[in-house]
Amino acid sequence: MIGLDTNILARYYVEDEADAAAAKQHEAARRLMEGGEALMVSKTVLLELEWVMRGYYHLGPDRILLAFGHLLSLVQVQIEDRAAVEQALDHYADGLDLADCLHHASYSGCDRMATFDDRRFARRAHRLGMLPAVTLLR
Q1: Domain ranges within the chain, ordered by starting residue
Q2: What is the pTM of this model?
Q3: Collapsing DSSP states into helix, strand and coil, what is residue 77?
Q4: Taken in order 102, 64, 11, 3, is the CA torsion positive or negative?
Q5: Which of 4, 76, 99, 109 is the most buried (most CB within 10 A)?
Q6: Contact at 8 Å (CB) between 133 and 112?
Q7: Facing residues of 79 across strands?
């Protein structure tokens, strides 16, 4: 099994045709991703990939969700804590920040999650009925 770094996935999902080196890396990433070997992706790599796609390449949530959906559909790819990642992506699709969603999904065995983030997370999580409950620490 081969563990993948963020840059492999970024080159696979974001083609930069203007840069010859990036195009070469895209082809190498494509060969690895589609070569049939068993691959592993950690939650931290997924978190960084979303940040790179959104922050560096200025891609929107729809494009990011499309790439993540494709990645999760690949039978040769094992995703760390897949159930939590799938739950996080469902809430990300509802407009929440992916990092918050991954943190929350990782706390499924907890009674609640505490945060200071009222507007961007706690209120939205409450409105969506997310469990465990997200509570605002004061």
Answers
A1: 2-106, 110-138
A2: 0.91
A3: strand
A4: positive
A5: 4
A6: yes
A7: 41
